[in-house]
Specification:
CATH class: Mainly Alpha
Strand content: 5-15%
Helix content: 40-55%
CATH topology: Cytochrome p450
Largest sheet: 5 strands, mixed
Shape: globular
Number of domains: 1
Number of strands: 12
CATH architecture: Orthogonal Bundle
Radius of gyration: 21 Å
Bound molecules: protoporphyrin IX containing FE
Strand order of the largest sheet: 1-2-8-5-3
Oligomer: single chain
Order of helices and strands: HEEHEHHHHEHHHHHHHHEEEEHHEEEE
């Protein structure tokens, strides 16, 4: 389809390369996707020395493949990042390595298999319709808020039998604060600097972490070793067959926090950015709407399979605004990454934000073009230049859940409403742990027909 070019918002780029310490101060410390130079989107590898620490940022897909797949055993989650996120997610799946990681992955994987996810489509559709019941027929809404409320409800229902303690506005506020604080202290922690616990952000973050951990601890303890008939219950039972009672309880709490956090904020961001992109490209939106309307008349259990064009839109939204804009590893032993030496103990940062907009990997990289993901176009790209869910053995365990959820919700929303940009109010993308629109994302609604 020949669609007018839509160039969605991104932070300004610098003409010069910023010094390594710029990442600690200034805009980059508040927004990890800001403060990059134009050159950063054309280079293959950067090596930065920060004090005694060496940080590599490889962009060549061969190097990324080596870190995440071919030599994945040599690249662990960084000790410093583990320490940083421990108060929130402990030793759960996201932060564990080695045998502890393998065991936990084995326990949760069946809950995210195709059949299990298809069984959640009705829950997802119900939440999508519920969100619309609060919308005006015509007018402006904050898509970020409605998306977060919707995905939070779905994760609470799908994994925790809709425990009411997990869907309150108070819970939403605490989670946002905990994530913001974790993101803002990340770099100082990597460098071993004090993490300024006295700032407002840090104090709110600590309160948020406490609230979340206390709530999930109460929920897990109330369940007892039998667990109950949902994801959390199955995980508690399985953990109790492999670990001591106290260890199983501790890991159940860590994973409850991991899945609650990892399982909704990222998908909420995907919904936001996809809605924004379609608002900026009305022809794309119209084509996706026609597809959605037709798809919604069929069997709900197979709805996502009838949305191939909307899937292209979501894939492109995940390219332009990867909800996890970076993730890190620490080298266990010396290695070579596409000709660049890496030392034991070095940090290797994988940056989907840079790789997804790299000018030697993509044509017109900053433009919105869902046709990049049209069937048959896979051969145009390297498998490791598109990484919204990571890759290799540690690829996001919830990827299918997230893609299904995004398709089901967006199909309901665009079939009922037309989304348009609000004049003079472009979104402000900000990346800390996740990539979200700062201050929300306002779009104007009108009836679809
Ligand atoms: C669009 C939505 C999502 C995005 C973009 C996303 C992205 C990612 C990425 C990039 C990783 C790999 C990080 C690394 O290698 O260091 C990851 C891992 C993970 N994600 Fe997601 N995620 C999404 C949704 C979900 C959902 C819905 C769940 C659960 C319900 C989830 C749970 C996890 C967990 C537990 C891990 C750790 C897996 C492991 O290390 O074995 N994510 N995610």
């Amino acid at each position: 389809m020949d669609t007018p070019r839509f160039l969605p918002a991104h932070p300004d780029r610098l003409d010069r390369v910023a010094g390594p310490w710029a990442s600690l101060f200034g805009e980059h410390s508040r927004n990890a996707i800001a403060g990059w130079s134009n050159a950063a989107f054309g280079q293959w590898h950067t090596r930065r020395k920060l004090g005694r620490l060496v940080v590599h940022i490889p962009r060549h897909p061969d190097a990324v493949e080596r870190v995440l797949l071919a030599n994945a055993a040599n690249y662990h989650k960084p000790r410093i990042v583990k320490k940083l996120i421990a108060p929130l997610v402990g030793r759960g799946l996201l932060s564990a390595d080695g045998e502890l990681w393998r065991t936990q992955r084995k326990i949760v994987a069946p809950s995210f298999a195709p059949g299990a996810v298809a069984g959640l489509i009705a829950t997802m559709a119900h939440a999508a319709r519920g969100a619309m019941s609060d919308w005006p027929e015509r007018g402006t809404i904050d898509v970020a808020q409605t998306a977060t409320d919707t995905t939070m409800r779905i994760i609470a229902e799908a994994l925790f039998s809709a425990d009411p303690r997990l869907v309150t506005p108070q819970a939403t506020r605490h989670i946002a604060a905990a994530l913001e604080a974790a993101g803002s202290v990340r770099l100082s922690a990597i460098l071993g600097l004090p993490t300024l616990r006295l700032t407002r952000v840090a104090r709110a973050g600590a309160r948020g972490q406490r609230y979340l951990r206390e709530t999930l601890t109460a929920i897990v303890r109330e369940r007892g070793p039998e667990g109950g008939e949902d994801f959390l219950g199955g995980m508690i039972r399985d953990l109790n067959t492999r670990f001591s009672r106290s260890e199983a309880t501790a890991l159940a709490i860590d994973n409850a926090a991991t899945f609650y956090l990892a399982g909704h904020e990222t998908t909420a961001n995907t919904l936001c950015w996809a809605a924004y992109l379609m608002a900026g490209a009305p022809q794309v939106q119209e084509r996706a709407r026609e597809e959605a309307k037709a798809a919604l008349t069929g069997d709900p259990a197979t709805l996502p399979q009838r949305l191939p064009y909307l899937k292209q839109v979501v894939d492109e939204a995940l390219r332009l605004y990867p909800p996890a804009p970076r993730f890190d590893r620490e080298a266990v032993a010396d290695d070579m990454l596409a000709g660049e030496p890496v030392g034991a103990g070095d940090i290797v940062s994988i940056w989907p934000w840079l790789i997804h907009r790299h000018r030697h990997l993509w044509d017109d990289p900053d433009a919105f073009d869902p046709d990049r993901f049209a069937p048959g176009r896979e051969a145009d790209r390297h498998r490791f230049q598109y990484l919204p869910f990571g890759a290799g053995p540690r690829i996001c365990v919830g990827a299918r859940f997230a893609q299904t959820e995004a398709l089901v919700i967006l199909a309901h929303w665009i079939a009922a409403r037309r989304f348009a940009l609000v004049e003079g109010a472009p979104p402000d993308p900000v990346g800390l742990v996740t990539l979200r629109p700062r201050g929300g994302l306002k779009l104007t609604l009108s009836p679809a027909d």
